[in-house]
Specification:
The structure is a homodimer. Chain A is an alpha+beta fold. Helices cover about 35% and strands about 20% of the residues of chain A. The first copy, chain A, has 8 helices and 11 strands. Chain A has helices spanning about 25, 55-60, 145-150, 155-180, 185-200, 215-220, 225-235, 255-260; strands spanning about 65-70, 75, 85-90, 95-100, 105-110, 115, 130, 135-140, 205-210, 240-245, 245-250. In chain A, the strands form 3 sheets. Chain A has a 4-stranded antiparallel beta sheet with strand order 1-8-3-6. A 4-stranded antiparallel beta sheet of chain A has the order 2-7-4-5. In chain A, a hairpin with a 5-residue loop joins strand 4 (about 95-100) and strand 5 (about 105-110). In chain A, helix 3 packs across helix 4 (about 155-180). The radius of gyration of chain A is 20 Å and the shape is globular. The termini of chain A are far apart. Chains A and B meet through helix 3 and helix 4 of A and helix 3 and helix 4 of B. Chain A binds a DNA duplex through helix 7.
DNA sequence: CGGGCCATTGAAGTATGTCAAAGTTTGTGG
DNA sequence: CCACAAACTTTGACATACTTCAATGGCCCG
């Protein structure tokens, strides 16, 4: 295998203006002033993580503003230029992109504390559209200033790298969901993943409101919305869960896992 | 929605010893001495990218060694601690992880110039296993030193961020493949993606050797190996391609795209 | 040259997609 | 605050693309 062939189409490194900040695109949407990380209830899940003292100043310097989204509103759209990362303060969002037939493929769901938008780094444009599943609020993080902060703080460098690693692992995980042969396994694994998300945020893992439609779930899992609905009904018949539209109660999580799900899931609690 | 619930299970930031380098795990495998990036034929696709002059010193400082892999050998395994990123010098690899039923799910394929292992950043362990599809050679990049380099060079920071973004976009793309309803669309889109990879590396996009087995392709595409084989035979019958085991000739790429694939694919050439 | 791995092809059963209709929930405007 | 409309969910029936099982054939490596 000779590797000395001509090299074509080397992707350009996106040019991020280090000093001059593109604040305007955000302001145009009627942004709110930034909120300091120190008092944010989900800071431990978010960019600040377990960063040591002295990072308050650096962190607050990254924040350009907040953005309030009503259900269905877009945070950014497929193809738009990338300027900011966005941290979810509250509410939830979905990411997706259009397929050839015009339908949307849902790629990921985002909850409070998630930092999203990293995929825009590849070529300087967002490859996905982020849509609010309910009323939500996000913090815009200047990517340019974040990089400056990384020059200063090794801890911040590791944290940013870690967050991107988490994004990758999530994609793996969702690929793992879709890889399952039977739709019951996919839906069961999805419910357990939901429970994990809830636990990470300190909520009850026994019952929760699902913010996404059956169509969103189906798209995410690579199956039809009817199949999702049928699986949920089946689990309910079998006594594993109780379903009332978007309110779901996990009556027998271990039973559900034993019957359908991956052994690699952490045991419980 | 009250967010002030107790926060549990904050993931630990992995501790990367900045100075003390874990060289041993690599040396134990019988590593070769590092090769300078400057003379590497795939440097434009790899970490160096379009980095300006003066980065030669920084780059060569990152390289710990090379590793030669025979077909079927593992570069790293699921669960092993993360120390290095790996750049593919030549050959090709697959990434995958075990599912509950013991089968392997193939997550990605890697070709010369790819930098892999970023997913180990999430918690300091590799979530996937990387296996050589043919004889291959990789450069081990010290993550700790890479971070140090990022402190120095803004360009390197952007490049690393870009590479991680590319990883994310690839995962999106592969998710987009699997999201397609019909297996013919998946296989057709996969062939076109293969052609793109070849083009990026300056090879003929008309004919190439597929290094992965039908089982690998099937796993990657979320379908069975038999279905992959049947689709290829069908495309051959329809005159779009010629197949002789792993040697594939793209006779009518545009026809294939028109018949099955995503309109969002770039036009051609 | 032989053996093992991999690819191909066939046949049969089934899980799941699609279409359709009825029943709920949610949101809006009067 | 109520009532209506729109959006979403559930359930059923049917068609089919896909998986599975199985057997043959080809390729590559030792």
């Amino acid at each position: 295998m000779d590797l000395r062939g001509p090299l074509a189409d080397v992707p350009p490194v996106p040019r991020f203006v280090p000093g001059g900040l593109p604040v305007l695109p955000l302001a145009a949407h009627g942004a709110l002033p930034p909120a300091p990380c120190g008092s944010c209830p989900v800071r431990h899940l978010c960019l600040p993580g377990a960063l040591g003292p002295g990072h308050g100043r650096i962190l607050d310097n990254l924040l350009i503003g907040r953005k309030r989204l009503r259900k269905g509103q877009k945070l950014y759209r497929e193809g738009e230029p990338f300027h900011f990362l966005h941290a979810v303060r509250f509410g939830s969002l979905k990411s997706g992109f259009r397929l050839s037939d015009g339908s949307e493929h849902v790629n990921a769901f985002h909850l409070a504390g998630d930092v999203i938008g990293f995929d825009g780094l590849a070529d300087g444009n967002h490859p996905t559209t982020a849509t609010a599943l309910e009323n939500a609020e996000t913090c815009a993080i200047s990517y340019a200033r974040l990089m400056e902060g990384c020059a200063e703080s090794p801890e911040l460098r590791d944290r940013v790298a870690q967050l991107m690693g988490v994004q990758l692992v999530r994609e793996h995980r969702s690929a793992g969901l879709v890889a399952r042969r039977h739709s019951e396994e996919r839906v069961a694994a999805f419910l357990l993943e939901l429970a994990r998300w809830m636990r990470e945020r300190g909520y009850s893992t026994r019952e929760f409101h699902v913010r996404m439609s059956r169509a969103d779930i189906g798209s995410y899992l690579g199956t039809s919305l009817e199949t999702v609905s049928r699986c949920l009904s089946q689990f309910a018949r079998e006594g594993f869960i109780k379903v009332r539209s978007r309110h779901i109660e996990l009556v027998d999580r271990d039973g559900l896992r034993a019957a359908y799900a991956d052994r690699r899931e952490e045991p419980a609690r």
